[in-house]
Amino acid sequence: KRGLMKKIIMYYGTECPHCHRMMPTAKKVTKSLGIKFEAKETWHNSKNAKELEKNRDKIINACGVIGVPAFFNPNTGEAICGEMPEENFKAWLKNQKK
């Protein structure tokens, strides 16, 4: 676990089916790796939507689009987006730095 990131933010939308499918995976994997997990709803929460917008360029750079679910490392500005297999999400997290 040494060197792993400390926190990941998941930007999601309440009615987003991909977000609903990724939420349990994200919680499980981050817990197993000892990474703090923070979920921020962006479709109905204007404060969280503004935060997502603030990180727009970094997320678009990583994902090609701005959308949810978006997983964001606030320490490095790296992101990954969309629904994916647990193994892919875990591999991305393990490659993140503090």
The level of helicity is 40-55%
Largest sheet: 4 strands, mixed
Structural class of the helices, strands and pairings?
A: alpha+beta
Poorly predicted runs: none
The geometry reads as globular
Separation, N- and C-terminal Cα atoms: 11 Å
What is the CA-atom radius of gyration, in angstroms? 12 Å
Largest sheet: spatial strand order: 2-1-3-4
Share of residues in strands: 15-25%
Report the total helices. 4
Sketch the topology as an H/E string, one letter per element. EHEHHEEH
Count all strands and give the number.
4
What is the residue-mean pLDDT, rounded to a whole number? 93
Note down, in words, how this protein is organized:
It is a single chain. The protein is of the alpha+beta class and 98 residues long. Helices cover 45% and strands 18% of the residues. Helix 1 crosses helix 4. The protein is globular.
Keywords:
single chain; 98 residues; alpha+beta; four-stranded mixed sheet; 4 strands; 45% helix; globular
Outline of this structure?
The protein is α+β, with helices and mostly antiparallel strands and 98 residues long. It has 4 helices and 4 strands, in the order E-H-E-H-H-E-E-H. Helix 1 packs across helix 4 (86-95).
Strand-helix topology:
Blueprint: E1 7-12, H1 17-33, E2 36-41, H2 46-54, H3 56-63, E3 70-72, E4 79-81, H4 86-95
Parallel strand pairs: 1-2
Antiparallel strand pairs: 1-3, 3-4
